TrEMBL record:
Pfam families linked: WD40
Source organism of the structure: Chrysochromulina tobinii
Name of the protein in question: Cilia- and flagella-associated protein 251
Transmembrane intervals: none
GO CC term (a single one): motile cilium
MF annotations from Gene Ontology: calcium ion binding
First and last residues of every WD repeat: 663-705
Keyword Chaperone assigned: no
Length: 901
């Protein structure tokens, strides 16, 4: 789980970002200067001296809760969602010392750890909206080495006295003086718990505005005052409610308390409250940190941090040396604030280091603390890597544009675009320009080094979804949610040779009637720029930039349908190389296939199985071979799926699964993917997790995996059920030899010749005999591919071998079978009245009329094979819907059972 040197093809090297919903923990003590915080699904120990990160990995969901023991030796992380996990880490060795799988069905909503690290208390996450779930659960876990990881030592449902589910509790805190005492609070209810007598008992004291003759705001956080029976709860109105034991109740082990008084702490919401030494410390939405004594007299205030609303506060571990103790006593005697240094996390995704002596500073600049970590304060969506420097740009929903040096891990520049949300970024290959597209349809071209504005265009009515520059940096293209491609050119206005070059809008073209999923520039054989786009309408469009002009608009070179049933989800242009004699476009579709398409006639040269780790590929890019690549060295394709997964594919594409790898890069959406100029690093943006992850690329590990997986046909055989010893493989062998006999004539009396080759004309029959029923177009594509393979092997293109057929079958067969949802969708489209029901005549008319239409003879043969009757009026019911079609005609016996389930 802990980050270490890895032989993986991709390994996480650095995390840019900070999850402000999780508290930052100050790990500073006499031996080290470090902080701990979370970003996405990774815990981070950041060394303040060496400026290095140690990454704690293992969660699949975003980390939502963290806490630590008093000596900071132990830190705990937990998440919410499916397959949730709670991990207790040794912060020195960065190794997990306790792992609790699924502590609650939907994860942990809040948690706290006792000062000695023995006990951990958790509040369960409620079930997602729309799912059934019982009351919230509070659980106490024994985290000592001898404790059980699997079950809590105490647990109870959070219910009202009537037994119904109580208000959701959002905060939990253990009493540092007596860890058997717990306080939780929801928006309006506070509950005191105790497990001192061998079980969880609780008491929820009443809290009414009538008792204090003032309104009581929403409750936010609670904590105990150490060394006493008192506790406090902060509110969104800036107040603090003081709780104490009932006069008539025993002080020891009691949970019965009453609200004694309300005190104003801040002018706005109190977002965090805790104790340190003899101080009560509060952080507010106003960005202020204030220190009070336990009588609520203000001692010190830090109101010039200017870092945003305070989300967490954490103090360094107090030193126990005699000199330090004497210094603290002297400071207290002189009236100076006496406490350890502390760090604050803010809602602006900042972590700031503060010293107590800042309170006595006179100059405002010295009261602001030291910025330790800076992240994005809103979802991030656009990334761009500089083509020759170790820099990347990132933008997001808040309109903040940042320029980072990823080698030095240093923020270089930033710019805020008010009332705009950034969506996509692109550096020009020269590095001179940086294009940024906004969700409002605005497009800005900036200077890549300074972020100064060069040009602004109102490019679309909707969102700019992608931007790309041509190889010579003279063209800029965008796609948008209006399904249009816009083209801009760097040139002389009015064709005046002496005029300064500027960006000119050439025009827009709606080449797709469904969303555009890919936009790529390529380079022609004469050095000219070529522009391609693919969309969910199954079209690949090439634009003729040479004939396009401001006066004449955008011209098309050609449009071709590249899919029949699949939906393109992305594309990448691959220039000619040592292993690819001709340039081509690679497209990905929602059926987990990659297609190699030759520019020009748009012929589909090859179809292979793509990575199937986490969904269809949505982003692809060709990694740079580096400064001095070896002759004939393989090229690599980096990819990302819409959710979670990032990986590599070794080229050329052939469907070998051992040449691909993938891993969980983010716990949710992967909003963008870029590569460094030298191909050594990948950068991924996590969308709503507000993080950017930097991955070290080690292609040698992928090469080793591919070599270990075998060569030739072995990787394809392994993809069959049962492998070489399975019944599927044996069936393919039998069918292949039978096809040779059939080609020679089943009734022939002449001596048989087993040539090891089957005529191309038998390819479709071979596929159908194995339960894969390709369309006529798909058979034509497979035949064309098989002929190219035969020619590459130096054979006549009239037959195929067993190995060639097996690779073709594995690559072309569907990854996912036909589902009842697909059948229902088809009937919903065919039934023009929206009922999803067709008459017999309408169904026959559709089968006879559209696309690869079935003639009367073909339809009769199909019906004879399916139901035993050639006559439609006998074989087909008068009214047909998806269920009747699947059960009566196709014979899906489990269709009804699945639908009922």
């Amino acid at each position: 789980m802990a980050m270490a040197e890895s032989s993986n093809a991709l390994s996480l090297s650095w995390v840019f970002g900070f999850a402000d919903r999780c508290p930052v923990t100050n790990l500073c003590d006499a031996n080290r200067a470090a902080i701990f915080y979370a970003s996405a699904h990774t815990g981070i120990i950041y060394d303040l001296n060496s400026k290095s990160q140690q990454l704690l990995q293992g969660h699949c969901n975003p980390i939502t809760c963290t806490c630590a023991s008093a000596d900071r030796r132990l830190v705990a992380t937990s998440d919410r969602g499916a397959d949730s996990m709670l991990v207790v880490w040794d912060s020195y060795s960065t190794q997990p010392v306790k792992t609790i799988a699924t502590p609650h069905p939907h994860g942990v909503h809040a948690m706290d750890m006792s000062p000695d690290g023995k006990y951990l208390v958790t509040l369960s996450e409620p079930a997602p909206e729309g799912e059934a779930g019982g009351p919230q659960v509070i659980a106490v876990w024994d985290c000592s080495p001898a404790g059980s990881s699997d079950t809590p030592i105490y647990s109870a449902m959070v219910t009202s006295p009537s037994g119904e589910a109580a208000e959701l509790q959002i905060s939990v805190r253990l009493d540092p003086s007596d860890p058997t005492q717990i306080v939780t609070n929801g928006a309006s209810v506070v509950i005191f718990w105790s497990f001192a007598e061998g079980g969880l008992t609780y008491y929820s004291p009443p809290l009414s505005s009538h008792d204090f003759k003032q309104s009581i705001g929403t409750l936010t956080k609670s904590t105990f005052l150490p060394g006493s029976t008192k506790a406090v709860t902060a509110t969104a109105d800036g107040d603090c409610v003081l709780w104490d034991v009932l006069d008539s109740g025993p002080a020891e082990y009691t949970t019965e308390r009453r609200a004694a008084k309300i005190v104003r702490l801040h002018t706005g919401a109190v977002t965090n409250i805790l104790t340190v030494g003899k101080y009560l410390v509060s952080g507010g939405a106003d960005g202020h940190v204030r220190f009070y004594d336990f009588e609520f007299r203000i001692i010190a205030w830090f109101e010039d941090l200017d870092a945003g609303a305070i989300s967490s506060i954490s103090f360094a571990v107090p030193t126990s040396s005699g000199k330090a103790a004497k210094a603290a006593a002297d400071a207290a005697a002189s009236g100076v604030l006496s406490c350890p240094d502390f760090v604050v996390g803010t809602s602006n995704s900042l972590i700031v280091s503060c010293r107590p002596s800042m309170f006595d500073e006179l100059m405002t600049e010295r009261k602001r603390g030291t910025l330790l970590v800076q992240g994005q304060d809103a979802p991030v969506h656009g990334l761009a890597a500089h083509p020759s420097l170790t820099r990347f740009a990132v933008t997001g929903k808040a309109g903040l544009l940042q320029l980072w040096d990823y080698a030095e891990k240093r923020l270089l520049l930033m710019r805020m675009f008010d009332r705009l949300s950034g969506h996509t970024l692109a550096f020009s290959p020269s590095g001179k320009f940086l294009a940024i597209g906004f969700t409002s349809g605005l497009l800005k071209v900036l200077v890549g080094m300074t972020l100064e504005e060069v040009a602004t265009f109102k490019a679309a009515a909707g969102c700019i979804t992608a931007a790309a520059f041509s190889h010579d940096s003279t063209y800029l293209a965008t796609s948008d949610t209006d399904n249009c491609v816009g083209v801009y050119r760097l040139g002389n206005p009015g064709d005046e040779p002496t005029a300064k070059k500027e960006w000119i809008f050439v025009g827009k073209y709606r080449g797709h009637y469904k969303p555009i999923t890919g936009l790529q520039f390529g380079e022609g054989s004469d050095g000219s720029a070529r522009l391609f786009s693919c969309g969910e309408d199954r079209a690949l469009v090439e634009y003729d930039l040479a004939r396009s002009s401001v006066q004449g608009g955008i011209q098309l070179r050609n449009t071709s349908k590249i899919e029949q049933t699949g939906v393109p989800t992305g594309c990448v242009y691959v220039p000619a190389g040592a292993q690819d004699a001709e340039p081509h476009v690679v497209t990905a579709n929602d059926q987990y296939k990659l297609r190699v398409i030759a520019p020009g006639p748009k012929s589909i040269q090859r179809t292979v199985v793509g990575p199937t780790y986490g969904g269809p590929l949505t982003r692809m890019l060709l990694l740079s071979p580096g400064e001095s690549p070896q002759p004939g060295a393989p090229r690599y394709l980096a990819y990302a799926t819409h959710d979670k997964v990032v990986g590599l594919v070794q080229m050329p594409l052939d469907g070998n699964p051992n040449k691909t790898m993938g891993l969980i890069a983010h716990p949710g959406e992967v909003s963008d993917l870029v590569a460094s100029w030298d191909g050594q690093w990948l950068l991924t943006a996590g969308g709503h997790d507000r993080s950017i992850h930097m991955w070290n690329v080690r292609p040698a590990a992928l090469v080793a995996t591919a070599k270990a997986g075998g060569s030739g046909i072995a990787p394809f055989v392994s993809q069959l059920d049962g492998g070489a010893q399975g019944t599927v493989y044996e069936e393919i062998v039998d069918h292949f030899y039978y096809a040779q006999l059939r080609a020679q004539g089943e009734d022939s009396t002449e001596p048989r010749k087993i040539t090891g080759k089957v005529p191309m004309s038998e390819l479709g029959n071979m596929m159908r005999s194995l339960g894969f029923y390709p369309s006529g177009r798909e058979i034509d594509e497979m035949t064309s591919e098989a002929k190219a393979v035969a020619q590459a092997a130096g054979r006549p293109a009239d037959s195929f071998t067993f190995d060639e057929f097996l690779a073709l079958y594995v690559n072309h067969r569907p990854i996912l079978g036909v589902s009842k949802e697909q059948i229902a969708d088809a009937f919903a489209v065919l039934a023009t009245d929206g009922s999803g029901v067709l008459s017999r005549e309408a169904l026959v008319r559709v089968l006879n009329s559209y696309d690869e239409a079935l003639g009367a003879d073909d339809l009769s043969k199909c019906l004879q094979l399916l139901v035993g009757s050639e006559r439609p009026e006998v074989a087909i019911p008068e009214r047909v819907d998806a269920k009747v079609f699947a059960e009566t005609l196709l014979g899906f016996q489990d269709y009804g059972a699945e639908a009922a389930a």
